[in-house]
Structures are given as structure tokens and as C-alpha cells.
Amino acid sequence: MKRFVISTICCSLLCFAAHAQRLPENASPQSYDLTFEPNLPAATFTGDETIHIRLRAPSASIVLNSAEIAFKKVTIKSDGVTQEATVTPNEKDEMVTLSVPASIPAGLADIHIRFTGILNDKLRGFYLSQTARRRYAVTQFEATDARRAFPSLDEPAYKAVFNITLIIDKSDTAISNGHILSDKPGPGDAKHTVTFSPSPKMSSYLVAMMVGDFSCREGAADNIPIRVCAVPEKKELTSYALTSAENILKFYDQYFTVKYPFQKLDIIAFPDFSAGAMENVAAITYRETLLTIDDKTASVDAHQAVVSVLAHEMAHMWFGDLVTMKWWDDVWLNEGFATWMSWKPMIATHPEWHNERSEILETGGALANDSISSVRAIRAKADTTADIQTLFDTVAYAKAASVLRMVEAYVSPEVFRKGANAYLQKHAYANATAEDFWGQMTATSGKPVDKIMKGFTEQSGAPLVSVQADCDDLGKTRVTLSQERYFGDAKKLSAGSSEIWQIPVSLRTDKSKDVSYFLLAQHTQTFDLPGCSAWVFANAGGRGYYRSAYQPGKFAALSAEMEKSFSPEERVHFLGDAWAMVSVGRLNIGNYLATLQQMQSERTRAVLGAMTGHLAEIHDTIVAPADRPAFEAWIRNFLHPIAAELGYTAKTGESDDRRALRGDIFDLLAEVARDPEALAKARELVAQYMKNPDSVDASLAASALAAAARHGDTALYDEYLQHLKTAKTPEEYYNYLGALTLFSDPALLKRTMELALSPAIKNQDLGAFFGALGNYETQTVAWEQMKANFPAVLAKADASLGAGLTAAAGAFCDPTLRDDSQNFFAAQHLPGSERPLENAKDTVNACIELRSLQQPNLSAYLKR
User: By the number of CB atoms within 10 A of the CB, which of 48, 180, 311, 393 ranks highest?
Assistant: First the structure.
């Protein structure tokens, strides 16, 4: 599943009811026969189900998962004897106990259940999705919501075959995991019955069903039929997704020994979806904005998002669907692998995007998240559904992918590929654990991957590798490496920690481009490198999952050589390490900005992204208010030469990288530097965009709308609102929706909150409001409005909401707002909120400390 981030504050408003526990281990399903008849006007469905199970031991009762299901009749048949069962619900644990008078013998048994359920409006289970024209019935079962559609053994280890039949309106179509086996009229004149081929053996959370008037564009790759489907109004926006899916499947069929393991691939976008996308077996479901774009006018970033999420979800067909983790504590085996794997077809099919550099930016983001003291380990205990929900985070996706990237570089891509394929072949159509993976990789590579992975998955945080390099009398470079856990909190970093990792450190010197790997397995170790080197770089290739710190003189030498002697990937990682040292006061922020100025001729988008990625943070939270105009002037002076080269219009034959960079620089100048020329251009572009969106370069549109909104009045707000209602593409819609949260007038902020809570805004888009919390100029007012409207927020989202909302408490850099948000959310007792709330507090504290450490240094630098 790909998480969708509409703001940096609230990653997801998807939530799960709390307290569900593990099932007893006596029963295991062999297959399910499922028939559903949805009633779209009434928002209900009826179901008829037979679960073919095997009992390990005799029992007079069987426990299933079930939530919001009304049981009509239950019978259990075994050895030719049918008994009617009584149903005892346990709503707290989302379970039911089916009891019969006489004990059921060990062996095979059939549970037959007739039931009814609700097509809910909470974007989980079997639920309603709606356009202005009609309703649809769709599913989202990960992690624990198949039980809302049918009673089941709803845990990933209970794989089974699913035989699905849907009775639907005559004018509608249906999509599921299998292909359509039969489509017969009836029952009655108004219905038809669609039966699908049996699914492969799979986990219950991977079942998918869609009902409505979906319209599909058809293609194929390697003899696998591929369809991209959407509501009819969006079909014309699916061509790019279809071409991309065909290319990605061809790539994966070459990379994996096991060819695409299912008979067809459907990719379906619908209007209401909690996540970004979901890897249901052979029926991937999508939020519209990540699949449906206008290929001719969409931004480079929108094109990249389509390919990225397709590549992620299609990778799940192997990592997650073919081989599934046994329990959710190893969800990184799904999400980390899919995140790591998704870059490969992007790099292969779109070399012009240079995504090998974006991979390193992803590693940097994961390391930043890992800097807080309360961050969880990759493997973390989770029994309740609220606990499970919190595992779908940066750690499971970006950190796990980054650790895999490091190991791949260490053992070599060829060896890693061989080991991954052996792992997939060994556990195909079954379940696996982390030990299964790293045991296989150790056997394949002959290197201690198991010891490396164990440290990086079972310990929280990430290491800081300090490098001391000096020439000895024999003309060699003696390198002393030491490790400690990196904290983004100076006091905690100074206090030290007990964690020890086995770290494959990749070193190179000014004497050679060759990489030397050393396994740092102790607190301190010393190695010799040939020749007397002016510097030793401790993350050659940039793929190591660790921070690096250098002696002051060596840091200066590396900075001076950065543009000449280092790859873009290495430059990205070096800049991340430098900021990490700024964060704990070990590098003066003035020296950091001077390093950026040394690299002012840089024009690589990813590297410039790393260079400028903290400018908004410095502007909003570190610089003293009196110095803010001076810092804005510094940004303008720094970026004007780049902006002058790029201009405001795309040039014939211009690369995608350069076109996207133009949008990045424009965004910084208009929104952070408050550059008069950029702001004037933003107003001009907004007027043009509102007349004809296709006439404005899409890479500039969102930034222009946002910049104009910050200084906008009621009249402009009303215009944005009107265009929101008539947007022709999802990209256009979200450009306006995001900009609406940036108007600074408190009265307009109030209108935005009322809009977010109204039926005009879908539940899936409630998180858009949190853009106002991320704006230092509006966050106090926005926070007060959020508190005042919190009951309505919960009602629109879900009463059991946890981690998604508490992330808002991490948006601040102020002790008063920190304490108020912590106290407020603690009083709500939201399921699963404890660790995210602690994460938020650590994030705010780190920001406050960074300001106290570096604000005087920044002031002195700006005065110079």
C-alpha cells in the first residue's frame, strides 16, 4: 500500500478500530466461497459464504474475525453432520465465536454463513465511493478490514483461495482478483450475476471487489492482459498509466525469476480512497490523483508520481502478494521491498528523470525521521489494529528501503538480485519472516547480511559514523571509524548510547574512485588505506544508511571538492550529513550556508533539492523575526542566478529535470524568499491559470496559486473555490485545494475549516486542512480552529482515529503550542496515538533546540 500525503503534517486519515487481538491457532482456511449482493441506494449488502477450514484439534467452537456484520444463519458441517451454530460476538476484539452442541472432529469442516453488512462511508472494508452522478461499491481491506465485508480468519498468515460471485445491477460491471468466469442474467430482470475465477492462495487483506459503471482502457505486456479503469468521466486520463504499467511489468518480468504470477492485471482508480494505492492481488486500487493525469499538460512531478506508485504497487505482486509477511511486525517485507524496488523500473524506463539521485533523497528523509529518540525500530510489536495501523509509516517504507539499498550496494546488485529471487521462489504463495529473507541473502552472498540486518531492523534510530583520517609515516592513510546512535537532540547525542550496529562503511579517497568496504562492528575500529589522502569520504555512492561526521579541516576539504570530485548521489548525502551536524550544533549554520554558496553553480535538481531543502525551515522556525528580511534577501541573492538561467517558460527540447527545477526555484523565490518579481509573476500566472489551466506550465501552477494565496483576499479565495468545483483533472483540483489552506486571513481560515468538514470535501481529503498548521503565520489560528471543531473532524474521519491526527502535534516549534497540543491529544485517548504523539513531541523539541543553538550563529552570519 502506498500512503498518500496531501500535506506534510497529516500522512493519512485512514484509521482502524482498536483492541483487536490474535485469533486462536486451531483453524486454518483452505478456501472461501463468497457471494455478495450490494444495494447501493440503501448502502447495504447481503452475503452468503462458505469457509472450507481445517481444524488441528477437535473443538465445539471456532473463532473468526468479524466487524459490523449481522449474522442471519450459521451452520458447520463436518463428516456429513451439519450443526447450527450460535454466534457470540466480541465487538471489542472484532471477533465472533461460533459454537455448536457437539464437538467438531479434527480435519476438514465447512462453515456456512448468511449475513448482511453496511456499505460504510469510512473508506474501509466494503464501502461507498461517490461522484456527483452516482454511487460505487469498492473495497479497502488492508490491514484488518476484510472482516467488515465477510467473517474470516483475517490475519495475513491464513492464506486461502477465494471464489467470488457478485450479484449486481444490470447496467453495472464488476472487478475482482480473478477474471470473469461467467456473467449470467438474473436473479430477476434488473440484475446479473458475475462469477470470477478462483484467486491464487492469498491473504484476506488482498481481496478486492468493485461495482459500478467503470470504464477501462485495455493493453497487455508479456501476454498478461492489463486494464486501467476509472469512472467514465476520468477514462480519458488513463492512457499514461496504461503505457507505464506495460513498461513496468516487462521490466519486472526480466528482473524476477518468477514471471508475473497472476493471470491478469487490473488497475482501478475511484473517487474515494483512504490511501494512495493498494496492492490487491491482480486488482490494484488507486486514489484518482495518483493514476489519472492529462499526459500532455501534467507536471513532471505528476508523471513521476504515476510511474512511482504503479512501480511500488506492481512490485507488491511479488513482495507482499506472492510472498506475504507472517505478521504485521514484518510489514517492512512488503512496504520496504516495494519502495526499494519501485525505483528500478523508473530508472530503467525514464533515465531522463535521474531517479538514482532521488533514491538518496529518500534515504536522507528516512535518516531525518530516525533522528528522534522515540522513533520505533523497523520490527515492532503490534497486536491491536491500532498498533498495526501505526506501522505504516516512514520507518516501514523509506527506512526499510534505504537499509535494503545499503545491503544491495554492499553485496553487489547482481548478488542481491539472485538472493531476492531465491527468497521469492522458496516462499511463493506462502508467508515469510525477516529471518527468512536475511538468512537467504546471507547464504547467497556469503556475507554477514543477517547480522547487518538484525541490527538495523531491531534497533531504533540510525548510526553516526565519525571519521578521523590522517597520514602515517609510511605514506598510508590511517582511518579511525567510531559509531554511536545519532540523535537530532544535542544533549542526547552528547550523553551517548549503547547501540552497536554492523555497518558496511564504504570509503574512498582523493587518490582513487575505487570504493573500499569496511564492516564497522565495534564502537571504534581502525583501517589503513593506500596513499596519503587529503580527505576520506565515508559514504561512497551515497547508499549507506548512516550519518557521517568529519574533522573540521576534512569537512572543509570535502566541501571545496564537492562539485568537482563527487557524484550527485554523494553530494546529496554529504549535504544531509552537514545539516545533521547543524541540527546538533556541531556545525555552525553560517558555515553550512557558506558551503551552499560554494556549490552555487550546481544545476542538478536532486542536489539543488538537498541544498535548498532546509531553507523554508530556517526561514520559518530558526531565523529571528528581525533577521527574516535579511535571510529572504540571502535566498534571493543565492537563487537569482539560477532563476535567470531558467526563466519562466519551458524551452524547446528542455529536459524534464530542468523543467521541474524551474518549478522548485520559483516556489522558493515566491513562497520563502518573498521575491517581488516572483510574487508578481505568481499573480500573473494565477490569472492566466484561472482562464485556461493548460496555458500555464504545470510545474509552476501550484506554486503560483500558493504564493498568491498567502497574500490573497476574499475575492481571490472565492475565485479559487469556484475553480475547485469545476477542476477538470485531479492535479488541478488539488492545486486549488492546497492553496485554499494558505490564505492568512483568520476569517478565510475559518471558511476553509468549514469547507473541509462539509459534504463538498470528501473524507479522503480532510487532511488538506492541515496545510494551515504547517504555515508558521497561520498555525496558531488553525490549531484553535482544529480544537474547536475536533468532534466534527472525528465524525467525518472516524471515532477511532489515532496516529494520523496526532501527527499535527509535530507541526510546531513553540513550547506553548507543543504543550497545548500534547495535552489536547492525550486527553482524547485516540487509539494508537501514544507513540506518534511522543514522536511529535520529540520533533518539536528538536526544532526548539535547533533554534536556540543556531539562531545567534545565523544572525551573526547574516550581519557579515
Answer: 311
